[in-house]
Prior knowledge:
This is YIP1 family protein. The protein is mainly α. The chain is 74% helix and 0% strand. The chain has one domain.
Amino acid sequence: MFANHMFGLLYHPRREWDEIRRERAGSILEVFVRNLIFLALIPPVSLFIGTTQYGWSIAGGDVVKLSTESALPMAVAFYFALLFGVAMVAYAMFWMERTFGVSASYERCLIFTIFTSTPMFLAGFIGLLPILWLDVMVVLAAVCYSVYLLYSGVPIFMDIPEERGFIFASSMLTVGLCALVGCMAVTVILWGMGVAPAFV
């Protein structure tokens, strides 16, 4: 069912959001296990393989690889950061709903957040190809489509008018950007504490 919705959001997002809205959400554990646990593995595993087996080359220079010993803890930390980030953005959405007069469960907010971020998770496959400009282009395209899914999905999924949906979606986009900046700050702190990448 998740795969059907995922591809439906790529081809006809508005109709698919309406179908997702009508489904039963399930428990938090069901939502995590059924939808997020494996989807969040794509970027860390792909980047782990790409950085340790193939290496990166910036502007056609020498190929740089990470050691397995340094890449593995970073991949594990990245995986749990993705899970935590999605859960926190969903909680922020759940918390803000009352301001907009919407009554939805945390599980439904979590489902919406997972489906909205699915293009970015799928773009993680590009980490297998260590070509910097290609990776940046693919990730930017995925981010743009996720933002489109957010703005098109909020009014339908939350069953609110378009104007209020735009404000709600803009608020969620701000929360997502703040979460990204927070992850970058934590990364810098960890690197300063000695958990930095080791190159081969």
